[in-house]
Design a protein that fits this description.
- Helix content is 75%, strand content 0%.
- The chain contains four helices and no strands.
- It has a domain of 42 residues.
- The termini are far apart.
- It is an all-alpha fold.
- It comes from Novosphingobium capsulatum.
- Keywords: DNA-binding.
- This is DNA-binding protein.
Length: 140
């Protein structure tokens, strides 16, 4: 299939003309091919810049939203660490538990691990209040 071509005349500076002649001297390469590819790349870059400007604002909003989520996750991690440290401090000097209390504690811990594992496996936003209250209703 033959494509239509339009003849153009233009001027190049001497140093660009020398470089074009040197590149076109290689076998299988023509000045037309070199200039066509160069113009195509230049037009593509201009289109990419326009698209980048168009989507840049939306991308910036997304980046800010992710940064806010990371910050909240950092806060929640710190709060959880403080809570665990507090609980370990409170229970550090308690007397040994009787068998029934140990069994109840183990059941609660096992339920917590199952719930946390299920939530992590689903990768869904946890509804901790409903999940934890449901698990506690089944206990004596």
């Amino acid at each position: 299939m033959q494509t239509r071509k339009t003849r153009h005349q233009f001027y190049l500076s001497d140093h660009l003309s020398v470089r074009l002649d040197a590149m076109a001297a290689k076998p299988g390469v023509s000045k037309t091919t070199i200039l066509s590819e160069a113009l195509g790349a230049w037009f593509q870059r201009a289109e990419d810049e326009r698209a980048g400007a168009q989507f840049g604002k939306a991308l910036s909003r997304q980046v800010r939203a992710v940064e806010r989520l990371e910050q909240r996750l950092d806060y929640l991690t710190e709060v959880l660490g403080l809570f665990v440290r507090h609980q370990l401090t409170l229970t550090a000097h308690h007397p040994a538990f009787d068998a029934e209390t140990q069994r109840l504690g183990q059941r609660r811990y096992d339920q917590f691990v199952r719930t946390a594992g299920g939530l992590a496996a689903r990768k869904a936003r946890p509804k901790a209040s409903a999940t934890l209250s449901d698990s506690q209703e089944n206990e004596p």
